[in-house]
Amino acid sequence: MAGLLHLLSYQSSHGFLTIFRSTMANEDLISVDYEIFGRVQGVFFRKYTQAEGKKLGLVGWVQNTGAGTVQGQLQGPRSKVKEMQVWLKSTGSPKSNITKAEFKNEKTVNSLEHSTFNIVK
Questions:
Q1: Domain Acylphosphatase-like: where (predicted)?
Q2: Is pTM, for the whole model, over 0.85?
Q3: Structural domain boundaries of the chain?
């Protein structure tokens, strides 16, 4: 569900100032760590994860591990992080085969600790 927009207008010394804000601005920001198991390396999983995270407006990172998994961190509005968790559990990249997704260390944060969604090499 896309966020609804509210239109706020008020008189300022320079005329009317119009502000759009998303109702999602009222949502908690959360951070969660993840690890994805299965056929997730060599199938562009990190690239697709980065693209999906950016599409949802999330920040964080993703990297391959020596154990053959992919791990990372997601941060953003609770509903968008939950949407990304579903994507990580069930979709991934076209050639991936996800067998398990683990999410841990979920916490509410006051501000985002990353400025974008990075692929860590």
A1: 31-121
A2: no
A3: 29-115
Q: Using 50, 70 and 90 to split pLDDT, how confident is the model at 45?
A: very high
As a whole number of angstroms, the distance between CA 85 and CA 68 comes to 19
User: Which residue is listed with tokens 């916490």?
Assistant: 107
Q: Which residue, chain included where needed, has tokens 């398990």?
A: 100
Cα–chain-centroid distance for residue 53? Answer: 4
Residue 81 burial by Cβ neighbours in a 10 Å radius (0-12, 13-18, 19+): buried
Q: Which residues contact 12 (CB under 8 A, 6 or more apart)?
A: none
Which residues participate in catalysis according to the annotation?
A: 46, 64
Amino acid at 100: K
Class of domain 29-115: alpha beta
Closest CA to 74 of 30, 109, 40: 30
User: What pLDDT score was predicted for residue 38?
Assistant: 98
Please state the rounded mean pLDDT for residues 77-101. 97
| Rounded CA separation 104/29 (Å) | 16
Residue 106 has pLDDT above 80, yes or no: yes
Q: Count CB atoms within 10 A of the CB of residue 79.
A: 15
